[in-house]
Design a protein that fits this description.
By secondary structure, the chain is of the alpha+beta class. The protein starts with 9 loop residues before the first helix and ends in a 7-residue tail after the last strand. Helix 1 (10-30) packs antiparallel against helix 2. Strand 2 and strand 3 form a beta hairpin. It has one domain (10-99). The chain has helices spanning 10-30, 33-50, 56-59; strands at 76-81, 84-89, 95-99. The chain has a three-stranded antiparallel β-sheet with strand order 1-2-3, with no helix packed on it.
């Protein structure tokens, strides 16, 4: 039986990945520019490697091409037109478009 490998525990691995994503998302919101950019890069790396997604509001704050935090008024431009939010990264020029959920009234 020597030389036989055990399989990795995927539940334990995913739980650790979720914990680290939650910790990194707290760092993204509360710290200065350098720490939050590093946390954003690490968050994307962990989520891609382990297949665990961060929350939608955190994912929308990260530029997917240059892996930095988008700060409206700082390094990002926000435009709203015809029910679509356009978030443009001023460092790399990538445009992220998202629909605004319209509430239908009575």
């Amino acid at each position: 039986m020597t030389g036989r490998r055990r399989g990795r525990n995927s539940k334990n691995r995913k739980n650790k990945a979720e914990d680290s994503i939650n910790y990194l998302s707290k760092l993204i919101v509360g710290w200065d520019k350098e720490i939050s950019d590093l946390a954003a890069r690490d968050l994307l790396r962990v989520s891609k490697r382990h297949g665990v997604r961060a929350e939608r509001n955190i994912r929308d704050l990260i530029c997917r091409s240059c892996n930095i935090i988008l700060r409206p008024g700082g390094n990002a431009r926000v435009r709203i037109q015809d029910g679509i939010i356009r978030l443009t990264c001023l460092d790399c020029g990538r445009v992220h478009r998202r629909n605004i959920n319209k509430v239908e009234g009575p």
